Amino acid sequence: MNKYDKKILEIAPNNGSIHELIRRPIRSGFLRFVDMMFDNVLVAADGLSSTGAYYLLVGDTSAELVHIEKDLQVSQQNVTQVVKQSAKKRSFEFEGNKYKVHRKIR
After folding, report:
1. What is the pTM of this model?
2. How many domains, in total, are found in the chain?
3. Core-most of 36, 72, 99, 102, by most CB within 10 Å?
C-alpha cells in the first residue's frame, strides 16, 4: 500500500467505495493521431508532469473527486452529476480531463 492509498483511507468515510483513477487530458483527433505516430510521447509527458494521485469516492448520494499531491495535501471536488451522467461506464470527463477507473481500493 502506497502513501496515497493510506491517505485516502484516512480521509474517506467508512461507507461507500473508493476507486483509484487514471487522468488523461482530452485531446482532439489530430493530437491523438500525432501521439499515436510518435509512440505515445504526449501520454508519457502527461504522466510525468502530473503529480500525486486521483481517487473517486462514491457514497449513497454523492461522488467526490479527490486529488492527493506528493506532499499529501488533499483537494476535493463534487462530481456527483458527472458520475450520474456516466452511469455504467468505467470513465467520465470533467474539466478537460478524462478519468478512468484503474482499480477499486474499497
Report:
1. 0.81
2. 1
3. 99
Distance CA 83, CA 20 (A): 14
Distance CA 86, CA 46 (A): 24
Instruction: Return the HEC string of the chain.
Output: CCHHHHHHHHHCCCCCEEEEEEEEECCCHHHHHHHHHCCCHHHHHHHHHCCCEEEEEECCCCEEEEEECCCCCEEEEECHHHHHHCCCCCEEEECCEEEEEEEECC
Closest of 12, 18, 8, 1 to residue 105, by C-alpha: 18
**What pLDDT, on a 0 to 100 scale, did the predictor assign at position 36?**
60
Q: What are the cell numbers at 48?
A: 510525468
Q: Whose CA is closest to 80, among 98, 56, 54?
A: 56
